[in-house]
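Pasting two entries for a bug report.
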Amino acid sequence: MKIIKTVLLFIVLTTVYLYSQAQKNNNKINNQKPTIIFVIGLWADGSCWNNVIATLQAEGYKVVSAQNPTTSLEDDVAAVKKALDRTECQVILVGHSWGGFVITEAGTDKRVVGLV
């Protein structure tokens, strides 16, 4: 289980790094890091991301863990959209398992700059 968390952390940090490099290359730096919203899979809750969240916050990122009700795709997308409404900058959505379906639907929001 620890190796899975390590791999997930690596993927998230790599994505955030690549995003920041793309912003620099396009001269679109706005001095604000994107907010990262984590979306859970089935049979889990937002606390699954605690270790990754702490690491990203230590790097200066704003991080939100959306609590999906997991009652339907529509309800889960609505929960992620509520989390999006709490942000004031660009967002990277990170989904695990079922969360991948959810972020694909919610990722059409104009604030979303990446899906992981």
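Entry 2 (this is the one that rendered wrong in the viewer):
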Amino acid sequence: MKRSIIILLSLFAMVSVHAQDMRNNAAFSLFSDNKAGQIGDAITIVVLESTHASNNAATNSGRSSELNFGLSANTGKPTGSTNVDGSLKSGNNFSGEGSTQTSGQISTKISATVDSILANGNLVISGNKKISINGEDQIIHIKGIVRTSDIRPDNSVLSYNISNADISFEGNGVIGDAQKPGFITKFLRWLF
């Protein structure tokens, strides 16, 4: 009996000395998902952004005033009647309308890395992606904070689940340059 207790205690001591880190073996487990959770881990961001905004305004105002006067005098002569009539009118009307409408839709995937882990366990992530096609560069930057519970089993997170998200798309090249105003246009805008 003592011998079996000693053997069990020996086995327990060996197991506790050579304990395995669950994080290291998560990739080989059949029962866990390999999700980002440590600094330097990669995570896939599925960017699905759709925006639509519109604003309409209409203003009408008006003011009018009218002043009439009349004067009649008779000099006593048969044709000596004098009549003076006058009228003064003033008016002011204003009507203005304006509307703006913007819409945009972005759909892409980008890989990001975990930069730091906040005290509550949320992950601070950032990532960049550059695509060059025929001399035209498209650069995507993304950063924000991700809750670990929002990370899906395939180690991806939807962009609308990122808090403090900063997503920017920039373009450089011939097409991007053609969309920018020229020097003379910039100068005239500066003057007026």
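Dev reply: Rendering is fixed now. As a check, the viewer should reflect this: The helical segments are 2-17, 22-25, 174-178, 183-191.
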